[in-house]
Write a structure and sequence with these properties.
By secondary structure, this protein is α+β, with helices and mostly antiparallel strands. The chain contains 13 helices and five strands. It folds into two domains: 19-131, Beta-Lactamase; 148-282, Homeodomain-like (Arc Repressor Mutant, subunit A, Orthogonal Bundle), CATH 1.10.10.60.
Length: 283
């Protein structure tokens, strides 16, 4: 393999190294390259390795020079000779990722640049290998972070949908605005039909008939729906106990709240919370 390279001329320095000096200069420079450098014979035996290669793989220089490229990269022959050899010969070089194995058997990812050379009718490879361990760790960290963000977004979307489905839409009933405004402002209190009727100036019987004719539901049903919607929100968004939530939505007896919740949702508050949170985390 030939290492003939030209040294740029400097206006302040005129120096043309002799062949032996040129070879020594190239070796000197290769020893200071941070990437591992290998010169590989046609039979994959290592003809030259730099200090970075020794440090990266944990071998002495003498040990490495007694090995083949296949000893440190078991897939080298397959990847280079079988998969990429034609490309390497045509283009002169090729870059791909592989795995190198250290003296103690630990494998780590590397980026390999293979160059093809012919010298006295024999084929040689000059290989530069750069460890990718840190970059791969960064990639894994970024992938985990992206996945966590995506998961949070999915959870948030599912949560917003669950809350949307639980939201009470009072609709547009001009004659009932006062009724619904009172319910919205006081559902967290233990209000009754009589309280609503008194607030809007109607008798309980007349108000019941009016609301049923306008909405198809009773005043009491609207109160329960608003309380259940808030209960859903608190079950999903907080860690409050069922008793605390019952009190927050206007129930003095949390047993009564549980019974109404079961009739309204076909399950207890505890079961509803568990089911929805399970769906969010599994989704």
């Amino acid at each position: 393999m030939t290492f003939n390279q030209s040294i740029p001329e400097s206006s302040n320095l005129q120096f043309t190294p002799q062949p032996e000096e040129e070879l020594q200069l190239i070796k000197f420079l290769m020893e200071r390259v941070t990437d591992a450098v290998f010169c590989v014979a046609p039979d994959t035996h290592l003809l030259y390795v730099n200090q970075s290669a020794c440090t990266m793989l944990g071998y002495s220089r003498e040990e490495l020079l007694s090995l083949t490229m296949d000893d440190i990269d078991p897939d080298f022959l397959l990847k280079v000779r079988s998969n990429h050899w034609k490309t390497i010969k045509q283009q002169g070089s090729f870059i791909f990722e592989s795995q190198h194995r250290t003296k103690d058997g630990w494998s780590f990812p590397v980026e390999i640049t293979v160059t093809y050379e012919e010298y006295h009718s024999r084929e040689y490879n000059c290989i530069f290998a750069r460890a990718l361990t840190q970059r791969k760790q960064v990639e894994v960290t970024l992938q985990k972070a992206n996945k966590a963000v995506e998961s949070r977004l999915e959870e948030r979307t599912a949560l917003e949908e669950a809350l949307r489905q639980s939201k009470v839409e009072f609709g547009t009933f001009p004659h009932l605005n006062e009724v619904f405004h009172f319910i919205e402002a006081n559902y967290h209190q233990p209000i009754t039909l009589s309280d609503v009727a008194q607030a809007v100036g109607y008798s309980p019987a007349y108000l019941t008939d009016l609301v049923r004719r306008q909405t198809g539901q009773t005043v009491y049903r609207w109160i329960i729906k608003r309380r259940m919607a808030e209960a859903h929100r608190l079950l999903l968004m907080t860690s409050q106990s069922v008793q605390q939530i019952a009190e927050a939505v206007g129930y003095l007896d949390h047993g009564h709240f549980i019974r109404q919740f079961r009739r309204f949702n076909s399950m207890t508050p505890q079961a509803w919370r568990k089911a929805y949170l399970s769906n969010l985390t599994s989704g």
